Amino acid sequence: MTEALCGQLLITEFLVDPKDPLESEWVEACNFSDEAMSLAGWSLCDLVGCSEIDSLSIEPGSYFIFCQDEEAFELYYSDFDRILIEVSPWRALNNTGDLILLRTADSIVADSVPYSAGNGDNISWERISFDAPGWDSATWHPSLAASGSTPGEVNSVHGGFPADFELNLINKLIYPGCGCEHEYLKINIEMPRECYLTLDLYSLEGRKLFTIFEEQMLASGEYLYDGRKSDGVFLEVGMYILQAHLSGQCEYSEKYVFGVVKQ
Predict the structure, then answer these.
(1) Cα dist. 205→202, 208, 214, 241, 260 in Å?
(2) Bridge partners of 103?
(3) Are residues 136 and 194 in the same domain?
(4) CATH number for the domain including 106?
(5) Cβ pair 81, 152 in contact under 8 A
(6) How far is 117 from 96, CA to CA, in rounded Å?
(7) Exposed (0-12), middle (13-18) or buried (19+): which is 87, by Cβ within 10 Å?
(8) pTM above 0.85, yes or no
(9) Which DSSP string corresponds to 237-262?
(10) Which pLDDT tens digit goes with each residue over 66-114?
(11) How far apart are alpha carbons 70 and 78 in whole angstroms?
């Protein structure tokens, strides 16, 4: 928590265009103060109007969710275990752009988030920095979580993006399917913003065997490759090449070598 945010509730993530099987829009917020905060008299608003929020107390540092339909939300996010608040009537959020406002009991805007569109595929908008204003589009980015969103959890893009791309093989020898610690190739990736990674697997003779990532925007972190080819069969003993290519706002190409062994 930072002093600048003390006493504030901020919008940290939202999803405006749910697709089957998800049937609920939702907005995540967090109490960044050092004390419990009451929501009595607070409202969640869009460009058209506001709906008053149930009078609940939110502990410091706690994430919570405003949702359109509590049952539908819990059905889709079955592991969610934070505070869930069904707002009625729900202010339907436009898929093609709207404004989300979090307003105090004194009608002061605690946070405002304009957006131009949803992301599709049940991918949320995540806040990159809690120190940057919510009204700045640069503060937001589509979730890079494998599930498409992180309700109640730390955002996949929290902390921002590195300036340069970097890929490191943590281990360069693997034994696919062994059920041991050497089963997977561990790949650490640092991804700049608005860059797309294609990562192809080749034999030493130059035959393409598998595409691990195809023009994907990824969160920086560690990824695992299980050693299978495109036909699902494990790689044979030998040496292999990974070809990384970046597109979008980045231009980069590099090769990496690893080996497959048996114990």
Answers:
(1) 8, 9, 21, 9, 16
(2) 43, 109
(3) no
(4) 2.60.40.1260
(5) yes
(6) 4
(7) buried
(8) no
(9) SEEEEEEEEEEET--EEEEEEEEE--
(10) 999 999 999 999 999 999 999 999 999 999 999 999 999 999 999 999 9
(11) 11
